[in-house]
């Protein structure tokens, strides 16, 4: 597993989303971690540990990870939200029963023949 | 293991679960583009809470939960999460961007 800096991680995550559009899933896991082994943890004692948020992303072929400190958190969570928003467009909008594609086609058709209502009413 | 159907219940219980044992809890999400499905999971290796959806509006709620978990995991399980929302976070981020003269 590769430990990346936050920005390269987001780039890589973007490409993982792009590669798994046809089939497959993307997993993203958050975990509170001190990034130390159990042995080191016992040696240092609970108080000396500095906790960060370990973020892993994986597809069937690849796993990447990054570690987020308090300093990076705000920036990372905003960019992470942007990446998700950009790629999670297969989800359905509102309680529409038909598939998203069908919904989109309908929308376009509804929009096109809209009348410019007010100007037509001229009383003779 | 059963899926929880109510978002609010899932969010509340998953935060409780994490706070009870921050060391061994994790928060995972799975997104399948081809099926248009999103699954969220929080587990401490003993109990596991899952939430499944295909609705875009739930992805927005998830964004807020993401931010809550980021805060809890970076700042500790006792961190204050009452003010954590997507928008406020984004705003504070902009103000912090100034290139301070720290020398």
UniProtKB/TrEMBL annotation, chain A:
**Any one Gene Ontology BP term:** SRP-dependent cotranslational protein targeting to membrane
Instruction: Show the coiled coil region(s).
Output: none
Record-annotated membrane-spanning stretches: none
The UniProt entry, under Gene3D superfamilies, shows: Signal recognition particle alu RNA binding heterodimer, srp9/1
Q: Name one GO cellular component term.
A: signal recognition particle, endoplasmic reticulum targeting
Q: Where is the composition biased (Basic and acidic residues)?
A: 101-113
Basic residues compositional bias: what residue ranges? 89-100
One Pfam family name is SRP14
Region span, Disordered: 89-124
| Keywords in alphabetical order | Cytoplasm, Ribonucleoprotein, RNA-binding, Signal recognition particle
Which Gene Ontology terms cover its molecular function? 7S RNA binding; endoplasmic reticulum signal peptide binding
Q: Main role?
A: Component of the signal recognition particle (SRP) complex, a ribonucleoprotein complex that mediates the cotranslational targeting of secretory and membrane proteins to the endoplasmic reticulum (ER). SRP9 together with SRP14 and the Alu portion of the SRP RNA, constitutes the elongation arrest domain of SRP. The complex of SRP9 and SRP14 is required for SRP RNA binding.
Which family does the entry's similarity section mention?
Answer: Belongs to the SRP14 family.
Q: What is this protein called?
A: Signal recognition particle 14 kDa protein
Species assigned in the record: Papaver nudicaule (Iceland poppy)
Automatic annotation (TrEMBL), chain B:
Q: Which residue intervals define the domain SRP9 in the entry?
A: 4-66
InterPro entries membership: Signal_recog_particle_SRP9/14, SRP9, SRP9-like, SRP9_dom
One GO CC term, this protein = cytosol
Supply the Pfam families for this chain.
SRP9-21 (PF05486)
Does this UniProt record's set of keywords contain Ribonucleoprotein?
A: yes
UniProt GO MF annotations: 7S RNA binding
Q: Which domain of life is it from?
A: Eukaryota
Which cell locations does it reside in? Cytoplasm
Alphabetical keyword list: Cytoplasm, Ribonucleoprotein, RNA-binding, Signal recognition particle
Q: Does the keyword Amino-acid biosynthesis apply?
A: no
Main localisation: cytoplasm
> Quick one: a GO biological-process term for this protein?
negative regulation of translational elongation
Region called Disordered, residue ranges: 84-103
Described by its record, this protein's role is as follows: Component of the signal recognition particle (SRP) complex, a ribonucleoprotein complex that mediates the cotranslational targeting of secretory and membrane proteins to the endoplasmic reticulum (ER). SRP9 together with SRP14 and the Alu portion of the SRP RNA, constitutes the elongation arrest domain of SRP. The complex of SRP9 and SRP14 is required for SRP RNA binding.
Could you say which protein family the record assigns here? Belongs to the SRP9 family.
Q: Which named protein is this?
A: Signal recognition particle 9 kDa protein
Q: Which organism is it from?
A: Papaver nudicaule
Q: What is the lineage of its organism?
A: Eukaryota, Viridiplantae, Streptophyta, Embryophyta, Tracheophyta
């Amino acid at each position: 597993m590769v430990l990346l800096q936050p920005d390269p991680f987001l780039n890589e995550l973007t490409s993982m989303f792009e590669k798994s559009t046809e089939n497959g899933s993307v997993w993203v896991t958050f975990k509170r971690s001190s990034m130390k082994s159990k042995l080191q943890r016992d040696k240092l004692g609970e108080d000396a540990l500095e906790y960060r948020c370990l973020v892993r992303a994986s597809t069937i072929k690849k796993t990447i990870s990054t570690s987020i400190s308090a300093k990076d958190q705000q920036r990372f969570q905003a960019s992470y939200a942007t990446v998700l928003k950009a790629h999670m467009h297969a989800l359905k909008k509102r309680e529409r029963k038909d598939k998203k594609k069908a919904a989109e086609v309908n929308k376009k058709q509804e929009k096109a023949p809209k009348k410019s209502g007010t100007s037509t009413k001229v009383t003779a | 293991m059963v899926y929880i159907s109510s978002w609010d219940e899932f969010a509340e219980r998953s935060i409780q679960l994490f706070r009870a044992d921050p060391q061994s809890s994790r928060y995972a999400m799975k997104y399948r583009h081809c099926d248009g499905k999103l699954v969220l999971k929080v587990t401490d290796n003993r109990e596991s809470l899952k939430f499944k959806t295909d609705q875009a509006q739930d992805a927005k709620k998830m964004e807020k939960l993401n931010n809550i978990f980021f805060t809890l995991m970076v700042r500790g399980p006792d961190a204050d999460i009452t003010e954590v929302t997507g928008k406020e976070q984004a705003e504070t981020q902009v103000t912090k961007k100034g290139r301070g003269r720290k020398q």
